[in-house]
Structure formats: structure tokens, C-alpha cells
Amino acid sequence: MKNINYKFNIQKDINLMIEYVRERYTKLQHRVLDFQKGDKKRLAKLLNPPECFNYDDECDDALWAFYILEICRNLDIVKYDIKGEYAGWHSCEPSFKDNYVEYLSNNKFVKLSPSKKERAILKVLINRDREFYNNSILGSNTLELFSRYGSACNITNEMNYTKVRNKLLQIIGAYAKDKKVLLKDFIAYLEKNHRDLIIDIKFMKKASCKTRYDTIYPKYEYQNSLNLDSDKDAFAIVEGYFVVKFLEGVMAEMQFVELEYDDDFPTDSTSRLPYYVKSFQLTQKFFHIMNPNDTTLDKAKITITPDFKIFIEAYLYQSEILENLAYFAKIKSEDKHLTILEMNKKLCLQNMVTDTKLLSPDETLKLLKIAIPANVEIELKEWGKNSDKFIIYENYGVVEAKLLKKDLQKVDDAIGEYLVTTTTNNKYKIVRKPDICYNRLEKKEFVPVKVKQKLNDLDFGVKKTSSKKKECKKQVVTISEENFIGINIKDNKIRKEIVEELSKKDVNPLINDKSGVIIFQDKYRSKYSSLVAKLKKKYLIELI
């Protein structure tokens, strides 16, 4: 006998998938609903696919990635085309032209508590495809899928699968509480007490079936030879099959059960009975999640040690806490219920300089109601002070938005984290990394006009006149074109220091009295670069 421990975390992988599609604007394949080759490789490293039976190469990582993406779509976190369109008369399958995965910023999932997220995921799994004709991503292939032959006109086509699964959850919770249950005993219990739970004979007339198991075939070769209604094991073959696929599917994927498999049970394709699953036992997570008012699993114990390590003990994935700590701490190790982070001064300073609205690390920890050792608190306050340096602005762009009010929010969503500020009338937007922003807007079909302005593009020359016309004497004027560099430094003290250093290098900079912008000729760029390199030893500088 062996126990299968599925080491994965659907909620964590959903959060990782959200970060991935927000940053990359992922495009799916043209011919099939699947990731591009490059995305498959990146997601295989990013996500945590489980060990499972279904695939020869220890579970195809790309299948797990797309499985997580499908859950995100059903949770209304992302959207993409799932219908496609037929490209021509001879197309046997739909195509998916320009099928981008779009993150829906107004989704409600990310704001839920960890336990409510688990219940939302459970609801998606409860409402998915039929067990008889689709394998779970974790399920074993010991039992083959039922044949689709006759499935359009048998009782399984009339079943309310969502209702059946919800009822089965209630029955399992009452029957299997605090004990290990043999699968044989549980199926026998269902046959005696809930015979019509899965295959309900009241649908026979509607499905035009003559008998209970009419046109239900566990394997294709049985369609003309197997009479399930006369088989003493018919209930175990059909209803028992559904129960096992439910346990390996919804229950195992939610980590509601610990399954025990029988090594001695036949695993060849002739096996019709589902008893290769020897037994199952419910986990405590099942009872907490099944109670809609239970918030026990939302609690997290957070400890900070004097050596700047953070220990987070929690039963469920704490996405909100980890996102707040990610600005100044890096993950060192992760276990099933324990995550260890280490605070990083350089990471903290970089993020605080980039985002001036970001709380200091000590303020963040206090907001999360975390007790901080005295030496750590003193050091963290110093980190916050060190981040108050100067910023040299470079590589900014302007987006002019002549759109209806309903489209303005879509523009902001496309620009995302690169939006710096916008005018009061929402007409002009200042953005960082303009090339990325313009590409995103183009994909969203807002199609901006990109304009580059350079001094060299302007024509200061004298136009030639026709030789037939009378020449007129004009004063000869020589115009010399020169390029300049402008830098904006908010700190007066440091601005003065920069000007003095540039003057020592014979740069002779000019200063705008109103804006404080320092301007000098482009030919002195090398001297300016050497000065910046020198200042980096003294200050934390971010070139924007």
C-alpha cells in the first residue's frame, strides 16, 4: 500500500499566474487553446506542478499551467477567447487569432480572505466537466474513461452534476468524520442508503432508457457484450467509478483527502472495479472550508528574529501578507505551512526610491500588527531615512488620450504600473518606459500615434530660390545646432553639489530659476557620467 501526498498549492499558483499575465500580456497559440512554447518553459519554473499519475514525463508542467489559467478564467480573474472561429470552409477546428490573456483588474477574488479564496476555488471545481468522460489532472489511468458511445441519450446526460457533487460532499463529511474509510465500505454504504444519488432512475423516461444502465459503457469494447444491469458489481462499476474520480478530482485537488492506494490491485486495462484506491481519510481543511463561517484557517503566526528573518506559519497561502513583505524581504525557503523570509536592505531602498508613496518597512510591519525586536526596529527606521535621496529623471513619455470617459480607465489599466501622473482633465498622462506603454496600448487597439522630437529634425537652412528670379542680397547667418542634457534634482543641497562638481570639470551648467532643472551641452556627457558613477558611492541613485 502507498499514500499519495500531492505537494502543490492551487491558491499560490493562481497568485503567481496573476503576476505573470499582468506583466507579460500573454498571447495563446493560434491553433489550440494553449500557451506559447516560451511561456510554457517560464511557467514550468514559476509554478509548482504536482506529482500525478496521468503523464509519462512526471506530469506535463504545461498542462498544469493551463489548468491554473482555466481556474483563473472561471474565477473571472482573466479572460481570453475560448470559442474561436473557423478560418474557412474546410476547417475542422476553430482558430484563435490574437488570443491575448487579459487580466481583469476589477476582479473580486484578489481581495478575498484566504479561506474565502479556497471556497471560491471549490465552487469552480464543483461546476466543471463530467467525471465519466474527463479525467482529473491528478487522477489515475487505472480505470479507463467511460465510452462516449451512447452518452448523448443515456441517464448521465440528464444528471445535475453540481447537485450530485454537493450532496456527495455532505455525505462524505458525515460518514467519514475522524476516521479512515475503506472505499469498498463507502460504496456499499452508498448502494444501500443513496442508490439514486448519482444515477437517478427518475431520468430514465426523459433519457428514453429502457434500464438503469442502458447505453452506459465503461469501455468501448463492452458496448455489445456487457449487460451492466445483470452484473452484481454494476453499482461499483458505475457509481463507484464516479466516486473514485470525484475523490481524485475535486477532493484531492482541494487537498480535502489523503488517499491510500493498493499496490496489489490489478492495474491493467481489463480492471473494471475502482478498488485500486484502498481507502481515504478527510483532512481538517475539509471541515474548516465546508463551514462558510469558519475563519480559523485565515490566521497566520508571524515572528521576526533579531537576525532579520521573518517566519510565517499559516495553513493557507497568505498572499496579502507576502505581497506587503516582498518590498523589503526575500523568500529563503517554503514548506507546506511555513515560509521563511529574510529582510534585505538593498531591496528595500530600491523599492522606496522607486515608489515614494511606499511605507517604510517598520511602518508596514506595524500595519500588519507584527511585533518587532528593538534592534530590528531601529535598523529599519534607518533604512527609511537612507532612501530619502534624489532622483534624476530620464526616459519619460507622454500619452495624449482623446477618448470617451468609459475608455479612460481601460487606458490606465493598459499602462498599469508605468503611469506616473495625469492632468486634471485626463487628457495627458506621464508614463515611465514609454515604449512598453505604447506597445500595450497598440495591442488594446487604442493605437496611439508615437511622435519623436529631436533638435536635429528641425530645418534651419535657407531655401534655394529659382535662378530666373532676381537675386536679392541677404545677410548670411550661421546657425550651429547643439544638443543639451537636462536633469531634474529635487533636493536643493544635492543640486548645489552637482552644479559645483560640474563647474570644476569646466562644464559650466545653466540652472532654470523656476524649475531648478540643470542644463548643459551634450558633449560633456562623459564628464556627467563619471560624476554620476562617483555619486553612486555616496547616494542611492535611480535614473528614470
Structural overview:
This protein has about 550 residues and is α+β, with helices and mostly antiparallel strands. The protein has helices spanning about 10-25, 35-45, 60-75, 115-125, 160-175, 185-195, 205, 235-255, 285-290, 320-325, 345-355, 360-365, 375-385, 405-415, 435-445, 490-505, 525-535, and strands spanning about 1-5, 80, 100-105, 180, 255-260, 275-280, 300-305, 310-315, 330-335, 340-345, 390, 395-400, 420, 430, 485, 510, 520, 540-544. The strands form 6 sheets. A 4-stranded antiparallel beta sheet has the order 1-5-6-4. Strands 7-8-10-9 form a 4-stranded antiparallel beta sheet. It has a 3-stranded antiparallel beta sheet with strand order 12-14-13, with helices on one face. Strand 13 and strand 14 form a beta hairpin. Helix 6 crosses helix 8 (about 235-255) and helix 11 crosses helix 13. The radius of gyration is 33 Å and the shape is elongated. The model is unreliable at about 55-60 and about 455-470 (pLDDT under 50).
Descriptive keywords:
single chain, alpha+beta, 35% helix, elongated
Strand and helix layout:
Layout: E1 2-4, H1 10-24, H2 37-46, H3 61-74, E2 78-79, E3 102-103, H4 114-126, H5 161-175, E4 180-182, H6 183-193, H7 204-207, H8 234-253, E5 257-261, E6 277-282, H9 284-290, E7 300-304, E8 309-314, H10 319-325, E9 329-334, E10 338-343, H11 345-354, H12 361-367, H13 374-386, E11 391-392, E12 396-400, H14 405-415, E13 419-422, E14 428-432, H15 434-443, E15 484-487, H16 492-504, E16 510-511, E17 518-521, H17 525-535, E18 542-543
Parallel strand pairs: 11-18
Antiparallel strand pairs: 1-5, 2-3, 4-6, 5-6, 7-8, 8-10, 9-10, 12-14, 13-14, 15-17, 16-17
Helix pairs in contact: 1-3, 6-8, 11-13
